[in-house]
Amino acid sequence: MAEDKVHGESELELEYIGGSSRFKGKHIVIQRGNEMDSLKVEGQSYKLKKFHWIEQGTHNLGMAVIGFGIGSLIGYAAGQDLILGIIGGVIGAALLGSKHDNSMVILTLVDNQSEIQVYVRCTKAEFRALSELIQ
């Protein structure tokens, strides 16, 4: 996955998920608008009607299982003890099965009386940056 970027204080590049056929590509650039409650998306000005952040996270179960197996082997080999093997497995599962942020923002934008929705992947830090663009 490409890395999301904050370009200074007035521009934000986010992973584009979908919602409108007006935008193409994997990423879109969102900039501060010229008026209050407005944004520029890919250079086009829009009035922001509302935006909603949906916090989501996923764990990588496959990697957690592999981590448990490797950690168990290392823990058991280190002390020839079943308890150390279980503890090693739990630690391995926790390290390899880490949580990935899949949060997103739904932007409802208005342009010449037509309303569109834009879905973008957005971490907590990017959401804060987007909130600052709107103010």
Fraction of residues in β-strands: 35-45%
Distance between the termini: 29 Å
Which CATH C-level class of the largest domain is it?
Mainly Beta
How does the major sheet shape up? Answer: 6 strands, antiparallel, barrel
Relative helix content: 25-40%
User: What would you say the CATH architecture of the largest domain is?
Assistant: Roll
CATH topology of the largest domain: PH-domain like
Q: Count the beta strands.
A: 9
What overall form do the CA principal axes indicate? Answer: rod-shaped
Give the low-confidence spans.
none
Radius of gyration: 21 Å
Q: List the strand order in the largest sheet.
A: 2-3-4-5-8-9
Mean pLDDT over all positions: 76
Structural category is alpha+beta
The count of domains is 2
DSSP helical segment count:
3
- Helices and strands, in order, run as EEEEEEHHEEEH
How would you characterize this protein structure?
The protein is an alpha+beta fold and 135 residues long. The chain has three helices and nine strands. It has helices at 61-79, 82-96, 124-134, and strands at 5-7, 11-18, 27-32, 38-41, 44-54, 57-59, 99-101, 104-111, 114-121. A six-stranded antiparallel barrel has the order 2-3-4-5-8-9. A two-stranded antiparallel sheet has the order 6-7. The longest helix is centred in the middle third of the chain and has 19 residues, at 61-79. 19% of the residues are buried.
In short:
The protein has 135 residues and is of the alpha+beta class. It has helices at 61-79, 82-96, 124-134; strands at 5-7, 11-18, 27-32, 38-41, 44-54, 57-59, 99-101, 104-111, 114-121.
